Automatic annotation (TrEMBL):
It comes from Lentzea flava. GO terms for cellular component: ribosome. Keywords: Ribonucleoprotein, Ribosomal protein. The lineage of its organism: Bacteria, Bacillati, Actinomycetota, Actinomycetes, Pseudonocardiales. Residues 1-26 are annotated as: Disordered. Pfam families: Ribosomal_L28 (PF00830). It comes from the Bacteria. Belongs to the bacterial ribosomal protein bL28 family. This is Large ribosomal subunit protein bL28.
């Protein structure tokens, strides 16, 4: 569960009870699988994105995001 654009991953820590007993837990990011049509590739691209990254795609456009991912070496 990792965002392909922002790199957001689960966070880890302790669940602390009222008596201060500590057990391990994790905070999962809100990661969604989203499908976008990319006109330059003439096909759909499925990306695993956090909700913040989905807003980034809406702002910058899918073409710019795909170019950024390719520059990072992510297979799209």
């Amino acid at each position: 569960m990792r965002c392909q654009l922002t790199g957001r991953e689960p966070g880890f820590g302790n669940r602390v009870s009222h008596s201060q007993r500590k057990t391990r837990r994790r905070w999962n990011p809100n990661v969604q699988r989203k499908r976008y049509w990319v006109p330059s590739l003439n096909r759909f691209v499925t990306l695993t994105l956090s909700t913040k990254a989905i807003k980034t795609v809406d702002k910058l456009g899918i073409e710019a995001v795909v170019a950024r991912l390719r520059a990072q070496g992510v297979k799209v």
